[in-house]
């Protein structure tokens, strides 16, 4: 399958993250995508440059206020002198407009750039630097180009997106995600193809942003297998099995949380369950949110899925026989990320009979 790739991901280098108030080394690094590219190049993959997409394409999944903030955040931060005093080399929010703080009053736009940083962020881990917007914007171009390739007749296409996106919701960002690449690809497919679109997220963490974007939408089936947030794992507040959609979208959302320490058997059973659910829902095309952080040695997950497990999951998803856009999400073991992605993509091709 074609691999859509942009060098512009390198513009986003968060350097680290702030977790429980402490600046620690980050794991969402430029090396992640570079290792994937190396593995796929060694396998003889065909690389495709992304097509520049109109800004209006982002409005199908994100509010304009979030987009305007992200586009100008670093420029405002520098103009406010925060890089010099107190010497903040990345944007870190310190104040969050919680609904109880506002007492149901509308949230005003703060005058201070330091306060505006918390208006759209929901964590302190997702730092913004001088190239974050450009990289995130390019990642959406990558995802939409992959979707366009599938619409044009490719059986499947892989979007090597970085930064990842499935934790970014319509009007907020977090979880090292700024714009939702998987949601953008699903929205493009839905506007072009007949019938429901399925998003199956196999990242180790719940795709809360994708769930949020489509929670009321009966035409996008969103399924996620992930480590149980009730056992203390990100995103903590979302990802439970009772979350099934809202209004017209009731029944179009499915979460399959699994226990920490789970390996191939329960994980693959959950992937199969989601594939069957999508097929019964009449899905006509598929977006695979391909996080590979469920692997046993990944530093960000307690799951124990093997390399063979990822290939088997790919076969299950490929066997649906649907036009498929595969969008890169998490995966933080630099020694394995390339081979894990390669095996998953090979499994999808095998499942399709390719």
Description:
The protein has 354 residues and is of the alpha/beta class. It folds into two domains: 2-62 and 131-351, Histone deacetylase domain (Arginase, Chain A, 3-Layer(aba) Sandwich), CATH 3.40.800.20; 65-120, no CATH class. The chain has helices at 30-42, 64-79, 99-102, 113-120, 132-151, 181-192, 208-213, 264-280, 307-318, 337-351, and strands at residues 2-4, 16-19, 22-25, 46-48, 156-159, 197-201, 220-227, 253-258, 285-290, 324-328. The strands form two sheets. Strands 4-1-5-10-9-6-7-8 form an eight-stranded parallel β-sheet, with helices on both faces. Helix 9 packs parallel to helix 10. The mean pLDDT is 97.
User: What characteristic shape results from the CA principal axes?
Assistant: globular
Q: How far apart are the first and last residues' alpha carbons, in Å?
A: 10 Å
CATH architecture of the largest domain: 3-Layer(aba) Sandwich
Reading side by side through the largest sheet, how are the strands ordered? 4-1-5-10-9-6-7-8
CATH superfamily of the largest domain, called what?
Answer: Histone deacetylase domain
Largest sheet: 8 strands, parallel
**CATH topology descriptor of the largest domain:** Arginase, Chain A
Strand content: 5-15%
Determine and state the CATH class of the largest domain.
Answer: Alpha Beta
> Could you give the count of β-strands?
10
Low-confidence stretches: none
Radius of gyration of CA atoms, rounded to a whole number: 19 Å
Which class of secondary structure composition applies to the elements? alpha/beta
Task: Tell me the helix content.
Answer: 25-40%
Total number of helices = 10
